[in-house]
Structure formats: C-alpha cells, structure tokens
Task: structure prediction
Amino acid sequence: MSKFDFDLFVIGAGSGGVRASRVAASHGARVAVAEEHRVGGTCVIRGCVPKKLLVYGAHFAEDLKDARQFGWDVPDCKFDWDRLRDNVLNEVTRLEGLYGQTLENHKVTLFKSRATVTGPQQVTLADGQTISAERILIATGGWPFVPEFPGSEYAITSNEVFHLGKLPKRIVIAGGGYIANEFAGIFNEFGSKVTIVNRSDTILRGYDEQIRDRLLQISMTKGIEFKFNAPFRSIEKKDDGSLTVHLDNCDPIDADAVLIATGRVPNTKGLGLEDVGVELDEKGAIKVDEANQSSVPGIYAVGDVTDRIQLTPVAIREGQAFADSVFGGKPTTVDYRNVPSAVFSHPPIGAVGMTEAEARNTLGSIRTYTSDFRAMKNVLAGRNERALYKMIVNAATDQVVGLHMIGPDAPEILQAAAVAVKAGLTKADFDATVALHPSMAEELVLLK
Result:
C-alpha cells in the first residue's frame, strides 16, 4: 500500500488539469483534483467558449443585413442581450457538468475547495484538511491583470463581462491584445459605442504587421474608435452610475462600462509555492523544465500558470504529456514550434509560424506572397471589406515558414493549413495542390 493518500493531486480543474487527471487515472493512478471556482477553468467558464458563443451572436448583426442582398426579406431586428447572456451561461453550466462527469467516470476524486501547497508532497484544503500525494500538479491557469489607478475598482475584466446586467451603450476597453479586440468587435456588432484605449501605439503585438494593420483599418471603418499612447489616469463614477475615464494624452471619455483587457498573469498568488521552494519568475509563473517539473522534485505545472504559451490546446497537450510521461511510461514532450493561433475579431485572424519580421531576422533571405481580395459573399452583400492572406517562405529551402490570414472563417481555414506548415511543406507543394473552387481557401494554393 502506498504511504500517500493519492498518487497525484492536481490543483486546478481547467483544461490542462482535467486532461492530466483523467489520463493519469486511465493509467491506473489514484488522482484527486481541487477546484475553488468551477470545473472547466478559464476556457470553459469565463474564456474562449462563452466568448466564441458571443462572437457567433455578434455575427448575426451583419448576416441579417447581408441576407437582404441574397433575396431574404429580413425586417429590422432587435437584439436581446439578456437572452443571449442567459443562453450562454446555461451552456457553460451544461459543459461544466460534462467536465465533472468526465472526472467522475475516471474515478478522480474532486474537492470543491481551494488548496494550497504546504509541503513537497502535501496540500491543505480551505477547511484545514491535509492530504498527502506522491506528486502534485499545479494547473491554476491565469488571472486578468488589472493595473492599479484611482477608480480601477469600477472596471470589469473578462471574468465579469459575461454577467453584465444590461448591454452598455458605451464601453471603453483597455488593451490592445486579442481579448480587447475580440470584445470590441462583439460589443460593436451588438450596437454599443466602443472605444479601445491602449497605452502603446500597437495592437496585437506578435502578429504580422500587415494583418494587424488590416484589422485596425476595418475596425475603424466599422465605427470602433482607438486611442493610442493613452495610459489610464483614473475612472470617475457619477451619481447616475455612468463612468468617466481620464487618460493621459487624451480627452476624458464617458462610458457605461470599462473593460480591462490588459493581459493575464499566472495564478500563483497565495498557493504557498514559494514556502516550499518552488521557483517563480518575475511575473509569478512557475519555472518548469521540458518534463513540466518545477524546481522542487515531485511538484509539476502545466498550462497558463507556466506562462509558456497561454492557449487552451497547449495546456491540454502539456497535461497529456505530463500524465503519459509520469504515469503511462511514455515519455512525451510538447513541441512549441508552429503553434497556430486565432483572434476571433470581426473579421477574424488566423496565424501560424513566423511573421515576416521574425523570418527576416531569423532566416535573412525570404519570399513573401500575398492575396488581397474581397470574399464573394461580401461582393454580393455590397461590403468593401477585404481579406488578406500572407505566406512567408524560406528562400533557401522553399519551405513555408509562416501563414497569416484575416477574413471570414480565417481560423477554420488556417487549422488545416497549419498542418502543412508543421509538416515542413514547400511553396511548390502548395502550388501543386489543385484549388477547391469557389472558396476563399483556394487563395492559399494560388499565391503568386
């Protein structure tokens, strides 16, 4: 008999923690999970899943207008925020139940409690109960970062935005990353007056410059306002409940809601990690090796809490690799090269591999190919919005090292194309592939 209560104790029942738990259990390990919020983590409960449902809802604003050009007699429609919000939250609850059922089916013990690490092989629950485990996995994800300034308590984050009591007529969104731009597109389509405020002069840092410039151009055409180089000074709350945002280098902005989307930080505060010798970086992320082990033997971490790549599929891959390696006898590491990503803006962005700037700095000699076109649907609908596809090629080898796209369904198209980039295919391989016509995706094999 083992001298430990469990072979594995996981703190955090998000995507990475649940995957690690069920796979470890399937390998025969005795597994427990502690979750202080709701099973499912950021992605399912307050992140990509409910946000994507809002994105779907927002698309109907343009689709209903466009339908008239396609022969449909669509009357003027009224949007009901309460109905969409409640339907989305009900779907989140359904998915939470499925995640809990998955743990139960694999005989994983679930503690609905906060847990802290109180020893190299010990955790303590909020009620004081101590539990021993041969190995501990930290999978507590990330948490929205809110800078401190007067009135910051009046702002909301992506955690609370799904629960708004009513649709704001005017919303100020702080930040220039994917969360800020996604919610800007969502609320703009719902009819809110949207202003993005960014302390720098760049949106979507890390994405290809041409692609992000195209999104900026389209967003402004749709009516979204941008204020650059404008750090927050304060938020003032008025008697009627409305807010006034005071900024540097910019006039004050009146709003009904302020959404802070200035990034996420590893959720390690108060877990007791430093007390047992777990090394953290300056952002609070757990430092791990390629086997996901921290500086303390037996304590591991996966997902956003390590701040490697903050994407749900990456956390799932890391959780799988950890469980297979430690409990399945199948040593596995995660390959972080050519991880595809998407921004579900309006229109959306898909990207994989190097940007043009990264390729020039890394490879020196490159070739770039672009296709700048109007989707067939937009032509008939009378929309001037243009898509942009971009391919980056290593001039020395003809290998495609980057694909970047903005336009309708770009992430759906990019997923399959990412396989080609991951496989190291060449521009000649793309050229040799017969186009699927008529489609937007065919542009990828017609680039000249």
Observations:
- Residues 399 and 426 are 4 Å apart (CA to CA).
